[in-house]
Amino acid sequence: MDDFKPQIVAFCCANCASSAANVSHDMKKVLPDNIKVIQVPCTGRIETLHLLKPFEEGADGVYVAGCQADSCRYISGITKAAKRVAQVKGILEGLSIEPERIDVFHLSAGKGQEFVEVADRMVNTVKGLGPVLTA
Amino acid sequence: MIVAESKPIKELLEMVKDFKKILVVGCKGCVTVCNVGGAKEVAILASTIRISGKKEGLDVVVGEHTLERQCDPEYINELKDVIGDYDAVISIACGVGPQFLSERYPDTRVFPGVNTKFMGGAVEHGVWSERCAGCGTCVVHNFGGLCPIARCSKSLLNGPCGGSSNGKCEISKDVDCVWDLIVTKMMEQDRLDELIEFQAPKNWTTARDGGPRKMIREELVK
Amino acid sequence: MSEHKAGSNLEKVLSAGHFAFTGECGPPQGANVPHLIEKANHLKGCVDAVNVTDNQTAVVRMSSWAASLILMEQGLEPNFQMVCRDRNRLAIQSDILGVYSMGIRNMLCLSGDHQSFGNHPESKNVFDIDSMQLIHTVKTMRDDGKFMNGSDVDVAPKLFIGAASNPFAEPFDFRVYRLAKKISAGADFIQTQCIYNMGKFREFMKRAVDMGLHEKCYILAGVTPMKSVGMALYMSKQVPGMDVPQSLIKRLRGAGTGNATEEGIKFALEQIEEFKEMEGIAGVHLMAIEWEHKVPEISERAGMLPRPIV
Q1: Does A95 touch chain B (CB under 8 A)?
Q2: pTM of structure
Q3: Minimal CA–CA distance to B26: which of B87, B86, B76?
């Protein structure tokens, strides 16, 4: 299991999450290469199907990184995204797949450190769970 | 509209576990409006089944199709060229869909993907509530525009019963006592005399109790 | 209210102008006849008639008609209860004929608690007709000799018709009108839900008397003695349509550990004294459920004994 490198898809909003990403870049902090980042104008744009598709294509984990609930540029985007993440957690449970494989994180625009931390956290969590496709 | 609710995933997977080629069919009617059976939900269910297939190491093919409605033969007919590619169909339309599909395509196994619940409407975004029980003899005008058959847990016509408390039905705090609403409204409308009038027992022959029903428009029948 | 409609003991007691006193006995959750007889015998000589409940709170028990017959064998007069939850109009009219033919003379017409309360929540509910329509049906069978469909009844059942009234359910302003409606539909006597909020009840009775309802129908006030603070709290929170004032809970607490039961009985006795004098009240219905052995003591202390022989 030690050599298992979980494939993670990260949906990041163009505001807080991307700003945090830029800050982390300036801090010379790098995301691991097994994380594929998809930038979206706002996490509210992410549909339930977008969150499922990565699992269909072989991803081991998915996360959504967006603004804090009270500072979302589009007011309620991140709140909606969080509900959809909860919905997918339910679907994963129905499939007997660990719901921890998907999560939502609220970042602040200036906190570059956090941007990398949540990525590391997801990787560790999913690594501990192992690959989805056990067959 | 008809309001339905998705069946639990575990139940759905159990239904189709022996099938390798599954078609998920949605409907652009009522189930789209209550977000359980439209094109989006077809895609979500199809993806879910594929993920399950991959996880179990099974070779499962899942097709997606959304019909205008599943309660008209002309739309059901649209599947005739593709249905042969599948050995099972999950219909996420209301209960009418799986039955119309089964009848038209007797060689295909058809499964219902939702549980059809009631006729109702949206009371707030994402919340639908029962309003009509299809009793066949509508008398809502006698009750201030509210239906005691559908909305009273005991279908009382001379309500409320003694269990009405704080405007809620005795069965749950989440259920409004429709008789509380009826009485309050009609008293405000100065229609107390109508409320005191004895409502005779209902004739249930026009309801489902009388047997399966049909509605015919003679001028349309060929 | 001059000529007897059914000639039952309860009817005769009330029409003679006595203050009536009725009790209650729930059938067993099985065919445990000895237990039923034991419970019922506590009430013998203490009450004019005994309510026999019908799958109360939607819990399956021996049928009310059967338990009523057993009580009759023991020399007690039953108030046979029927709810609308479990029977359609065919079974209802059929049972009305059946119970009358076996000698039952009092019938209470109720809606019935929803089956979700009971031990078979998955059952279908019937509610073909409601309690108002049931009252009307019994009256039509008795006085017009007609079934619900208008055809003739081959020997009409002469039953004394009872109904329930809950002065504390909402909307409060409508409750007295609903009572009036039940009386128009044919109720001969009414038993109220158990009363704790005397202030609210006095207000309700004032309205009922103003409408002259007490002249058309005998109204019996419901009394259930509180056995403990726990019971008072349970009833105030968990039982729909129940109004338990804080002052009563405080009084029971204030009595001190071990004394709440006696305090509860004292409160009930005070209520009974007031009901004896209250305009429009023709009697009291004592619901000492699963506490039947206390009824003789309570009847004695309430000055209800001996019961009138009519």
Answers
A1: yes
A2: 0.92
A3: B76
